[in-house]
Specification:
Elements (H helix, E strand, L loop, with lengths): L2 H26 L5 H23 L10 H24 L2 H8 L2 H12 L6 H18 L8 H23 L5 H21 L11 H25 L2 H7 L3 H13 L5 H28 L2
Helix pairs in contact: 1-9, 1-11, 1-12, 2-3, 2-8, 2-9, 3-7, 3-8, 4-6, 4-7, 4-11, 5-7, 5-10, 6-10, 6-12
């Protein structure tokens, strides 16, 4: 199996996890603010990471190297995730994902500068096709600008920074180490931001399963994404994530009666075509380079 195809399979797990997080975040929005959601999410994450790390012996892989990059990565992710959780509670899920998906454009443009990756013609074409598909689905209008749209669009910039610093960290750090600092640092950030006013909402029997789902899926999403980034360039991995948009659009229609029309599927076809073209080209190139 080629590295590109393996990265695509890891991204399927990431897509499913992020979609579950969006639905759980929508359900929790009436009871918790975004800082509280992030605090509980990180608490569940820390619990899972520590258990798995000690059970497998991977705790030995956790070290204090590259702490500056770890802090920058997690600050960027914490900011982007808070903006994202706010957006999923106030605007349609498909619209959140559509605006979030401008982050691959930032990754593709900045990867040559930050990561030293080469921007090939085919990777650029795949990213552009994915973005065109998003515009077909969302058909954004300047008349509809609101706080939710601004939050979703802003989160994309911070997610792009998160992706690029994750890629840099995979060069020297293991996945266990990255996930450990992801959960522990963001738990600290969450405690500070959620508790600054002295009032933290406590979970009940209804909200606890959704908080656990966010915590587990948040960890799985980053585990899958980090695995994908560790075996393939960011400009290959990120366009695959476009598939999340038609998936969440259908879920939004089924669960929340959000509007869905033929243009969602037209955009999805364009998105899938771009991803298929990119995976096919990278796979063929890998085969051709083998002796």
């Amino acid at each position: 199996m080629s590295t590109t195809l393996r990265a695509a399979l890891w991204m399927i797990g990431s897509i499913a996890s992020f979609s579950a997080m969006a639905i759980a975040g929508r359900e929790l929005g009436a009871r918790f603010d975004t800082f509280e959601i992030m605090m509980y999410r990180s608490a569940f994450g820390v619990f899972v990471v520590i258990i798995v790390a000690f059970a497998t012996g991977a705790w030995r892989q956790i070290n204090t190297r590259n702490m500056g990059q770890q802090v920058i990565r997690n600050l960027a992710h914490f900011t982007g995730q808070n903006l994202w959780f706010y957006a999923v509670t106030v605007i349609p899920l498909a619209q959140v994902f559509a605006l979030e998906f401008t982050s691959p454009l930032w990754v593709i443009v900045l990867s040559p500068l930050i990561l030293g990756e080469r921007l090939t013609f085919m990777r650029g074409v795949a990213a552009i096709m994915g973005f065109i598909g998003i515009l077909i689905v969302a058909r954004p209008s300047i008349d509809g600008i609101n706080a939710g749209l601004i939050a979703a669009a802003s989160s994309a910039i911070f997610f792009a920074l998160t992706i690029m610093f994750t890629k840099r960290l995979t060069r020297t750090q293991t996945i266990t180490g990255i996930l450990f600092y992801l959960t522990t640092m963001q738990l600290v950030f969450g405690l500070i931001t959620a508790g600054y006013d002295g009032d933290i909402a406590l979970p009940d029997a209804v909200s606890l399963p959704f908080l656990a789902l966010i915590g587990i899926c948040g960890l799985l999403a980053h585990y899958c994404l980090t695995n994908a980034l560790s075996i393939a360039p960011a400009t290959v991995v990120v366009p695959i994530d476009f598939i999340r948009l038609p998936v969440i659009a259908v879920l939004g229609m089924l669960l929340y009666q959000e509007s869905l029309d033929i243009w969602v599927f037209v955009g999805a076809v364009v998105i899938f075509a771009g991803n298929y073209l990119n995976i096919w080209f990278e796979t063929r190139k890998g085969v051709a380079q083998k002796p």
